[in-house]
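Protein 1 of 2
SEQ + STRUCT:
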Amino acid sequence: MTHFFTKLLSILTLHDKRFLFALIFISIAVSLIEMVGVSAILPFINIASNFDNIHSNSYTEQIYTFFQFKNDVDFVITVGIALLIFYCLRSLLNLGYFYLLAKFSKGRYHLIAYRLFENYLGMSYRSFIDKNSADLSKSIINEAHNMTTLISGLLLMLSEIFVVMFIYAIMLYINWKITLLISTILLINAVFLALTVSRSIKKAGISREEHQKKFFEIIQGSLGNFKMMKLTSTTESILEKFNHASAGYAHANIRNETLTHFPRLFLETLGFGIIIFMIIYLVNKYQSDISGALALISMFVLGLYRLMPSANRILSGYNQILFYKSSLDIIHNDLMYDAEKLQNDPIEFKQILQLDRISFEYDDNKPVLENISLTIHKGDKVAFIGESGSGKSTLVDLIIGLYRPQKGSISVDGITLNENNIKSWRNKIGYIPQNIYLFDSTVAQNVAFGKPINDDKIKEALRQANILEFLETHHEGINTHVGEGGVKLSGGQRQRIAIARALYGNPEILVLDEATSALDSDTEAKIMEEIYKISEDKTLIIIAHRLSTIERCERCYALKNGAIQ
C-alpha cells in the first residue's frame, strides 16, 4: 500500500497535493458533524420521552435557564427545530464536500490526459517507434478516466474512515462491551470480504486491462487497414478476435459491477442481524421487555444505520482501487518517462553538413549503421540507394535529427548537432515521407500542419506542388476537405499535398523518403520534375529504389549492411 501511495503522489502536482490534503481536513470536519448528527438524537429522544430528563441533566438545564424557556414543551419543540436546521445544514455541507471530491477526482482526468499526451509528444522518435499507438490512445482515453475513478474511490474511502472512527468512539463511550462485540463481528466479516470478493475484483481488473488493450489494437488496426480488409475478405476473422476481446472486457466489468454490490447487501444483512441479536440478548438477560434499554438500542440502531453505509463505501473504495490499480501503474510509468529536453539555439547551414564516423543500433550488439562518414554541401542533390534493411532511412533520420548517433558526430558548418540546437536544425528541413497521413480536415489545415495558417503562403506552396489549379477548378481550393487519411484524393494528389506541406515553412533542405515509390512511373516522373524545379536553391536528399528517381542527383551513395559501398 505504501508503494501505491508513493506512485499516486508522484503523479499529482503540488497544487493537487494541497487540494488533496485540504479535502482530508474537510472530511475530518464533515465526519465530526456526522458524529454530532448521530449522537444528538439520543439526548433528544431522552428529553422528548421524559420531560424530567430536561432538568436532571446539567447541560440541558443550563440551556433551558439561559434561554428562559417558559415550559418544557416549548423547549423540546425548539430543540427539535434546531436539530432539523442542523440536519439541513449538514446535508448542504455534505453536498458541497461531495462536489469538491468530484471536482478533484474527475477534474484530474483533464490534467492527467493532458500530461500523458504532452509526454507522448515529448518522447524521442526512437522511443516512440517502440510504442504501440493503440496503447497510447488507450492510456489517454481510458486509463486516465479509470485513474479518476480510483482517486474518487480512495477519497471516499478516506472520508468514510473518519466517519467510522468518530461514530465508533461515541458507541464505545455509550457501551464499550456491545461495541467491541460488534467490532469483532464486523472485522471478521471484513477479512472474509477482502479474501474473497476483493481478490476476485483484483483479478477482474487485470483481465479488464488485458482485454481492453487488445480491444483498442484490433479497432485501430482494422480501421487503419479498412481497404485491405475489404479486399482480402478477412472481416470474419477480425470480428472473431474483436468478439473475444470485447466479451472478455465486458465480462471483467460485469464481475466488477456484480461483486461491487455484494459488500452492501452482505453488510445490510449483517447489520440487521446484529440489531436482532442485541434485542434477543437484552430480552434474555433481563427477562423482560426492552423499554428500559430503548434509548440505548435506538442509539446503536442509528449508529449502525450510519456505520453500515460507511463500511460499504470503504469496501467499495478499496475494491475500486484494486480493480483500477493497473491504470495507476500504466499512467505512473508513462508520466515518469523522461521527455526530450530540446532547445532552439540558432544554427546556420551555409556550407557543409558533416557526418563523422557515426554508428547506430536499435538493439544491443546489432548495428544498423557502422562508421559512416560523408559530407553534404549546401545546395547538393544527394541520393541514398540500397536494398531494404540496408540502413538508408535510419541514416536520413540521423541527418534530420530524429535519432542521435551512438558513436561519432554530425555537425553543421563545424557546430555539432545536440539537444541545444536540434530544434533549429529540424526547422530547416522539409520532409516528404513514403506513407502520407492527411487528417480529416481541409487542405489548408493539412498543409499548415499546426503552424499558423497564412492563405497566401499555403496557395504558393500548393502552386509550387502543382496542385492549386486542380483544387480550385474541381474542388473548393484550399478549403477542400480531404477525408481521413486523404481518402478523397488520389495517390498523386496526396503526394502533392505532402510536398506543399514540406514547402510551407520554406525549408533549406528537402528530404524525400521513398516518397514516390507507391506511384506509377508517369506520375512519379512528373512529381520528381516538380521537386527538382522547386529545390533548385535547396539541398535535396533522396532515398529511392528506382534509378530514374535519382538520375539528376549529383552524388549517389549505395548502402549495404550498414556501410557505404
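Protein 2 of 2
SEQ + STRUCT:
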Amino acid sequence: MQEKRPITDWLPITKKEVEKRGWGELDVILVSGDAYVDHPTYGTAVIGRIIESEGFKIAVIPQPNWQDDLRDFKKFGAPKYFFGVTSGCMDTMVNHYTANKRKRSTDSYTPGGKAGFRPDYAVATYTKILKDLYPDIPVLIGGIEASLRRVTHYDYWSDTLKPNILEWSGADLLVYGMGEQPLREVLKLLKKGVPFHQLTMVKQTAYQREADFGVPRNKKWNDIELNSHELCLTDKKAFAANFKHVEQESNKTFANRIIQKVTGKNLIINPPFPTMTEKEIDGSFDLPYTRLPHPKYRNRGAIPSYEMIKFSVNTHRGCFGGCSFCTISAHQGKFIASRSEESILKEVNQITEMEDFKGYLTDLAGPSANMYRMKGIDMDICDKCVSPSCIHPVVCSNLDTSHKPMTELYRKVDEHEKVKKVFIGSGIRYDLLTKSYNKKGDEADMDEYMEQVQTRHVSGRLKVAPEHTAPETLKIMRKPSFDHFKEFKKKYDKIDKKHDLNQPLIPYFISSHPGCEEEDMANLAVETKEMGFKLDQVQDFTPTPMTVATVVYYSGYHPYTLKKMFAPKNERDKRAQHKFFFWYKKENQPWIEERLTKADRPDLIKRLLGDTSHKGNSKPPKWLAEKRKESKGKISHKKRRKR
C-alpha cells in the first residue's frame, strides 16, 4: 500500500520532497524527536497537518543529528514564520531512562526500535541549536516535554529543581496541553500580519518577558502569582505550594493567568482554551493522514510504537481521574473531548482498507477506556469546579457516568463486515463499574458494559490498575479503597465463569509511591496473594514533572495541605519495596521473613509465607531449613574462634 502512494502524500522531510511540491521558502519547519509517522496518534503529524490545513508551507525534520555539523537543522534554511520543536510523544527522559535511572537500550519511536537517535532534554537541545543557527527566527515549543515543564519543576534525572523550559531552552513561545486550538489561533494571527513577538494574548500559551516591561493587561483575565523560581530553590514548601494553583488553573473552565518571576523576567502562562468540541476534535482526526510511517524508513526496520497502534482507534481525550502520579490530565485536561461516532467509524473504515489488516482492531478507547462521552450533567456546576478529579474522594453527583455510548459504539464497530474482533487495550477505570463506589451509577448499565467487554473485547486477559492496597497511600494517589477492586473482581469472575471465558484479571500496582511504607508493601503482597494473584504487572514510582506525587517526592510536603509527608527515595528502600511484589520467588523469601520479623509482624509472615514456626512433626520449607543450617554453622564457627 505504501509503495502505491506518491511521496507528496506525506509532509516533506527532505529538500527533494519540498522541491517536488514546487515550494521555495517554507513558512514553518517542525523539528521532532520521533520518527515521522503520519498518523493521528503522533503529535508531529497532527500539528503538521493543521499547519498544512491553514495554508502554510510546512516541512518536518524528524530525529535530526545534533552531534555532527548540524546539516539536518540547516537543510531547509530558515522558515518565514517560525520553527516548531517537540521531543515527540514522550518526555525524552522517560523515553531514555528507567525508574532506576538506567539507560534504556531501545526507543519505540525510532525505526528498528534503536536507541540513540535523540538527545536528552530534546526540546532544549534542539531549540538551543536553532537559536545559534538562526537567532532571528522565533521558536515555538510544544508537546508533552514542553507542556509539563512550563513552570519551575523537579527533574528526577538530574535531581535538580529546574526553571520553566522557556528559560533554559531559550524558546520564544510555549504551547501547553493538546495544541490544536492555540496553534490555529497563532497561525490565523500570523496570516493577519501580527508579528510573532506580539502573540501575547493567545490562550494556552506561555512566554517570558523582562520584569521591567511588566505584564500585558487583559481585562478578561485575573492574575495569580506563584512563588518565584528563586524562592523555590531555597524553600521546598514554597515550591510545593505553587503546584496546587498550577493544577487547579490547568483544569478550570474559566482559569486565571499565572505569573512567576524567574531571573529578572516574568513567566506568563495564559489560561487554557475550553475543552475541544466534538466538531473540533473530529476536525483534528479527520485530516488527510496516510496513517503510515514515511517511506524513508522502509529499510530501517519497523517502528515499534506504530506497530502497536496501527490498527487502533482513539475515541476521546482527557481523563477526570486526577491520579496524583499521572500526567494525562495535566496535559490533556480533566474534561473529556469525545469524537463523534461518524468520525470514529470513518477511521475504522480506513483501517479495514489497509492491505495488512487481518480483521483485528487492537484498541478502541482513550486514555481511560471507559470515559467516552462522560461529562457534567449541569455544565454550570462544572464551570465553577476547582477539583482536579471528578471521581475522588467520591464520584461527583454531577458526573454522567453512563457507559451506554461506549457499549453501543463497540457493537457498531463489531458489526462491521471486515472487523473480526475489537480489543480494548487501554486501561479501564474499574471503580466506575462498581456500585459500592459509583453509587449513583446505573448498575444494569455497568453490567451490560462489563458483559460486552468481557465476552467480545478482551485479548486473553484484562488489565486494570488498583495501584495499591494501603488506604493512606491510595488517598495520596487519589485512588479508591481496595475494597472496591475486590467488588469489581467478584463481578468480573462471575461473568467470566458464566461464559466459560477463562480470561484472568491482571491488576497493576506501584511500589515506592510517596506515602508508602515498607509495611504497606507487605500488606499489599498479603492481600493480593489471598486473592489468588502472583503479581507481574508492577512498577516503581517514577517522578515526572507536573504531578502531585513528584512534588511530594522532592519537597516532602503535600501541595494541597502543606503537611510533611514521607517518600521512599534511596535505592535501598525502593528495592526493598519492590521485592514484596515477588514474595513467591524463593530467593526473596528469607529476606521477607527477616524484614517482617524486625517489624514484629509474625502475622504477615504467616499469611504471606505460611507457618514458619514448624513445631511438632511439620518440616520447614527448604529455603528456611538451609538458612537455619547456615546460621547455625556461622554460630559454631564463632564459638570455635573464641575457644
